[in-house]
Fold this sequence. Notes:
By secondary structure, the protein is α+β, with helices and mostly antiparallel strands. Helix content is about 25%, strand content about 35%.
Amino acid sequence: MQHSEKKQPVSVKKLLLILIGSAAGLAVLIAGGTYVYLRCAEAGRDRDEALRTERAQGDAARWVQEKYGFTPEIIDVSLEQSGALFDAAYTGNAVVWASDGDVSFRVRVADEEARCGDDYQKQEITDALLQEVNRILPGGESLSAWFSDLGETGCYFHEKYTGGNLRSLLAEHENMRFVVGYVNTDFADAPDFPLLRECEVFTELYSFDSAHHLQQAKERLGWFEGAQWAAVLTGGCYVRQDGSEPFTYHLTDYDDFRIMYTDSETAAPGTEPAPPVVTADNGREIVAHFREEQPRTDLAEGNTHGWKVVADKHAYYLFYPVPEGDEQPLHFEAVIEAESASEQILRYHRNMYRYGDYYVLECSSYPIQRIAVIEGAQT
């Protein structure tokens, strides 16, 4: 009589090992498949980006050739995208950096030709705008020019400037801002600038107290802010759509500082604002405490000029004179003690950048309580 072998039951331990092994194998398959998918997707994106970049380069070269008659050297391409980081989509627009061998410029290419443009002639157009201003009020020099496209960001002109079409070129843009500097010029009888008004070019005229300070302002590239130069200005004039309006900055001397309020409620129009309550205190001790609290601060070693207690609650600019010397840094560092909305005292440091003969600090983040200027501290 034959006896059938009795099957031994699979132990729980073995069953768990089998399940774990199966799960691990499945995970490897899934991970491998995901990796292959992501690599393929990445390769597809790279291929699409390369094709779009090549197309943008060709479109930019053709645009320049047809508009100006030369073939530019392509330097770089930036494809415009919209959407979230991992779900960004190409908009069909691109910015191409190009050169004619001497001048670098940008070309904006788009699916719609009306949205294409370049800034190759920006300096020439700015010079023509300055010539129009000087025709009415001679002696001005350009400090800043900004042209913002209709619905776009950046300065791109669609039409070619030919010398007699300045008005139509300006009509292509909105949010235009033009800043012109003069030396010891009185704007009390502000002249009319018809072209600026009719084309809505937001224009600011500033009078510097010396040609040296005007030259310093010209050498500082970027956005020009009149309030930062207020200590070396003798006046200004706004040119708006409804006419010209002269103005004057009001500064108050106090101790080694000059102070200018930016809150219109601090003084009646045409009057000097009252200085804030300022007293001397132990600056070195406070700065040492600041360094203990924030040992990793990049505040450099220097000589503490003095600690100033400022009780005023309004926003203002603080002007600290540049110490005498042939070579002074672009900025000093100032330790600031401010009171937050919750009445918590915050200590931090900010750079005071040089504008003319002064280092300037805009005090507007919190109501400032105390400021210490550290001479010799620079980064």
